[in-house]
Design goal:
Helix content is 33%, strand content 15%. With 211 residues, the chain is an alpha/beta fold. It folds into 2 domains: 152 residues, Ribosomal protein L4/L1 (Ribosomal Protein L4, Chain: A), CATH 3.40.1370.10; 49 residues, no CATH class. It has a 6-stranded mixed β-sheet with strand order 2-1-3-6-4-5, covered by helices on one side.
Length: 211
């Protein structure tokens, strides 16, 4: 598979770039994509939720009424879960939601996600570019030229470029990542992926099939 290379003006450069079939043209494994996205979202959870149980409430331990003869149910202190303000039964406790995932599964998930985007024509190859200053207006202009300004976009660059990242920071639907930061969730969450020409070799190196 080959894709045309565009410049920041939205014009074709006359060059094409060959996509590695083992990365951009495989049969997508949807379960691997699901697992990798699930792990990514689990890693984002703080896990600091907490509800006080009966033993942690600051109410008095005095018995509210005598055990028998009232005609009602027995009751102990005000910490009982049956009373408003009492302890919570089986409430949430702080926990770590992270879980391990085989590196081969993660690599397969990224290849599957990229193959889906390539097959659906949701991938654009952009020649290498830099910005001399952080200008949000310039980034909007580039996206307009590529006709993807109204779409959630993921821009993949070869190396971290401070001005490119700052120019896209205030755009709600745009995210800039390097190849090493590329993950399955960001790929699937974006409607269109813009990959710099220089990133292709690095993607091939990182996602190449390894035994």
């Amino acid at each position: 598979m080959e894709l045309k290379v565009y410049n920041i003006n939205g014009s074709e450069t006359g060059r094409t770039i060959a996509l590695e079939d083992s990365i951009f043209a495989i049969e997508p494994n949807e379960h691997a994509i699901y697992l990798d996205c699930k792990q990514y979202l689990a890693d984002q959870r703080q896990g600091t939720h907490k509800a006080k149980e009966r033993s942690e409430n600051a109410h008095s331990t005095r018995k509210l009424k005598r055990q028998k003869g009232t005609g009602g149910a027995r009751s102990g202190d005000y910490k009982s879960p049956v009373f408003v303000g009492g302890g919570t039964i089986f409430g949430p406790k702080p926990r770590d939601y992270r879980f391990k995932l085989n590196i081969k599964v993660k690599r397969l998930a990224r290849r599957s996600a990229l193959s889906l985007k390539a097959a659906n024509s949701e991938m654009t190859v952009l020649e290498n570019f830099t910005l001399e200053a952080p200008k949000t207006k310039k980034m909007v202009e580039i996206l307009n030229n590529l006709k993807i300004n109204d779409k959630k976009s993921l821009i993949v660059v070869e190396n971290q470029n401070k001005f490119v990242s700052l120019s896209a920071r205030n755009l709600q639907n745009v995210k800039v990542v390097t190849v090493t930061e590329l993950n399955t969730y960001d790929i699937m969450n974006a409607k269109n992926i813009v990959i710099s020409e220089g990133s292709m070799a690095e993607i091939n190196r990182v996602l190449a099939t390894k035994k």
